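Input (structure):
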């Protein structure tokens, strides 16, 4: 049975206490291919201001940074953020902050909001609130969704649940999508 509440900082603190790279972001060929597909789905566009929700240890952040004038990357885990800061130490355009989206959310607007492998940790209520905040923060910009598709029973949402919720909101228009057996990428205009 899926949990009704969002998975919060305490869940991720336990996960990162067990392993500094619990999802093998640094070493997995699958993750590397997905990250390159994530960057490629955005085309050659350079973004003035980007917001990455759930940056973890910064592997995708480091790949996104060259395409962004400014990139704010956030996570709920202090341990993950420390590793991300070290990985991106040479990237002057990247700023890190501890936030628990949707309850913590920047007041800025962005021409790219990246929601990769994070929204299925949110409850239905938090997903709805996140969609609303992201729609406001990305108005006139791009939202990129990337999520693992196989069911994970301790996550409140599935990857398809997340993408369907965004696509059901009339503030978003699907620009392009890519789907494999294991993950899905949707690029939306906000």
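Output (sequence):
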């Amino acid at each position: 049975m899926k949990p009704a509440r969002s998975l919060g900082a305490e869940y991720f603190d336990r996960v990162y206490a067990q392993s500094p790279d619990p999802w093998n972001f640094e070493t997995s060929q699958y993750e590397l291919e997905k990250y390159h597909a994530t960057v490629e789905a955005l085309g050659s566009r350079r973004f003035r201001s980007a917001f990455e929700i759930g940056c973890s240890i910064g592997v995708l952040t480091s790949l996104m940074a060259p395409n962004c004038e400014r990139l704010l990357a956030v996570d709920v885990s202090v341990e993950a953020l420390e590793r991300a800061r070290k990985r991106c130490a040479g990237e002057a355009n990247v700023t890190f902050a501890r936030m628990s989206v949707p309850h913590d959310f920047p007041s800025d607007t962005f021409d790219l909001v990246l929601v990769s492998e994070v929204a299925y940790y949110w409850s239905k209520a938090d997903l709805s609130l996140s969609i609303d905040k992201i729609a406001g923060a990305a108005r006139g910009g791009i939202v990129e969704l990337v999520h693992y598709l196989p069911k994970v029973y301790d996550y409140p949402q599935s990857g398809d649940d997340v993408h369907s919720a965004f696509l059901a909101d009339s503030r978003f228009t699907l620009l392009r999508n890519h789907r494999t057996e294991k993950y899905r990428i949707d690029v939306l205009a906000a």
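Notes: Strands lie at 47-53, 68-75, 94-98, 112-116, 142-148, 173-179, 183-189. The longest strand covers residues 68-75.
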